Write the C-alpha cells for this entry.
Amino acid sequence: MRRIQSVKAMTTWSAGLHREGVTIGLVPTMGALHDGHRALIRAARLACDAVAVSIFVNPLQFGPLEDFDRYPRSLPRDLRLCEREGVDAVFVPRAQELYQPAFETAVSVQRLTRRYEGLSRPGHFGGVTTVVTKLLNIVRPERAFFGQKDYQQTVVVERLVADLNLETKIVMRPTVREPDGLALSSRNRFLSPAERKAATVLYQALLAGRELIRAGERSVKKIEAAMTKLIWAEPLARLDYLAVVHPTTLDEVRRVRGRVVLLLAAWIGETRLIDNLVVSVR
Ligand SMILES: Nc1ncnc2c1ncn2[C@@H]1O[C@H](COP(=O)(O)OP(=O)(O)OP(=O)(O)O)[C@@H](O)[C@H]1O
Ligand SMILES: [Mg+2]
C-alpha cells in the first residue's frame, strides 16, 4: 500500500494507472475509520481495479464553533485498516498544500445546500463541495463512493459532478449500523454510555415513521408529529430538524407518494448526529 502526501505524487500515481487501463475507485473520508468506511472500501474493491482512500479532516467544512480541533484523529490505526482491506493508496494531503495562502476559489451547489444540514451548519457544504472537487481532480477516479448516512451530502455531490461535467461516477452505498440500529459515525465515540443508549432514538424514530407509512399513513404532518414525539420523549436528545423529502430534489413533500426520504438530525448531549431512511410506497 502506498501512502501519498503530495498532490503531485497522487496525480502521478493515478496517471500511471490510467495509462495501463487500470480503473480507480476513490473513498473520500475524514479518517477515524469504522465499518461504514470499510463497507465503502469493499464496494470500491469490487467495482474497480485499484482503490484509493483519502483521509483529510477538511478545515473548510467546519464552522468556527464546530469540533474541528477535537475531531477524532487516528492515522496509524486508519492505515492498518486500509492495509488489511487491500487499499492500494492512501492519500493524506496536508491542509497547507490544498489551501495555499492565496487560495480563494469556492465551488458551491445552490438550492440543494440551503436546507437541512446547510441551514444548521452554515458554510459546511461549501467546504464539502470545494474539497470533493479538488479530490476528484487530483485522483481522477472512475468511481467515488459515498455513504447514505450523509444522504444530503451524497445528493449534493451527485449534482456537483453532473453540473460541472466531472467524469467520476458517484456511487451511494447503504448506511452501516450497530446491532441496535445506531448509524456508525466517527462522532459516536464522543457519546457517554448513557448518551450512547439514548442515541438509538434517531433510528427508532425513523423506524416508527416507516411503520406508519407502511400502515397506510400518507400525511407528512402526522408522520412528523409521531416521530418528533418519540424524540422529545428521550431526555438526552434534542431534535435539530426532521423532514420528509423527495429523494433527488430534497424538496419537502406534504403527502407520501412513490419514494421519500425521512431525514433527521439531533443533538445527543454535545454531539450532533444525523440519520435517514428511504421509504417506498406503491
Ligand atoms: N454508517 C455509515 N455507513 C455508510 N457510510 C458511512 C457511514 N458513516 C459515514 N459514512 C460515509 O463515509 C464517508 C466519509 O465520512 P466521514 O469520514 O465524515 O465519516 P463519518 O462517520 O460521517 O464521520 P462524522 O459523522 O464524524 O462526520 C462519507 O461518504 C459518509 O457518508
Ligand atoms: Mg461525516
Observations:
- The chain has a mean pLDDT of 98.
